Amino acid sequence: MRITLAVDTETGDRAGATDDLYDWLRQDPQLLSLVRRESPVGVPAGAMGAWSEVLTLVLAPGGPTAAVGAAVVVWLQNRRGNQTVTINQPDGTQVVVSSEKVRGLTAEGASELAQQVAEALRQRPATDGTEDRAGQGD
């Protein structure tokens, strides 16, 4: 499964924030060989403005979704200002995490959020057309 991560920031320094997230993800041995930088072909659905760069991870089935969730949550907790990371899945599903919502979390709360992000990344749409749309912002 190929997912992309795009960073938006209130300062407008998306490239700098994306570079920081890229470096952060590469510190995790499980993600080091999976993360790549690339220029987006188009703007992600629902995005406001142009996105300068995205990060791509190619995860095998059952891959390190927990590591991705934890890395994103902890990175956002340690950022100044407001940033948002949008994780786009191949089926168009988006998982959006904002520093405004994670900065004040306890260690337990951050762990729970990281697990929720990982679970959202593991979910597959139903093949019978009754796709679970919970948490997708409908």
What does this protein structure show overall?
There is one protein chain. The protein is an alpha+beta fold. It contains four helices and five strands; from the N terminus they run E-H-E-E-H-E-E-H-H. The chain has helices at residues 14-26, 65-77, 99-102, 107-122; strands at 2-9, 35-38, 54-58, 83-88, 94-98. The protein has a five-stranded antiparallel β-sheet with strand order 2-3-1-4-5. Strand 4 (83-88) and strand 5 (94-98) form a beta hairpin. The model is unreliable at 126-138 (pLDDT under 50).
Topology:
Layout: E1 2-9, H1 14-26, E2 35-38, E3 54-58, H2 65-77, E4 83-88, E5 94-98, H3 99-102, H4 107-122
Antiparallel strand pairs: 1-3, 1-4, 2-3, 4-5
* Percent in strands: 15-25%
Q: In total, how many beta strands?
A: 5
Q: Which consecutive residue ranges, at least 5 long each, have pLDDT under 50?
A: 126-138
Rg, Å, rounded: 14 Å
How many helices? The count is 4
Shape: globular
Mean pLDDT: 80
Order of helices and strands: EHEEHEEHH
First-last Cα distance: 23 Å
Largest sheet: 5 strands, antiparallel
Oligomeric grouping of the chains = single chain
Please state how the strands of the largest beta sheet are arranged side by side.
2-3-1-4-5
Offer a concise description of the structure.
By secondary structure, the protein is α+β, with helices and mostly antiparallel strands. Helices cover 33% and strands 20% of the residues.
Key descriptive features of the protein:
138 residues, alpha+beta, five-stranded antiparallel sheet, 5 strands, 33% helix
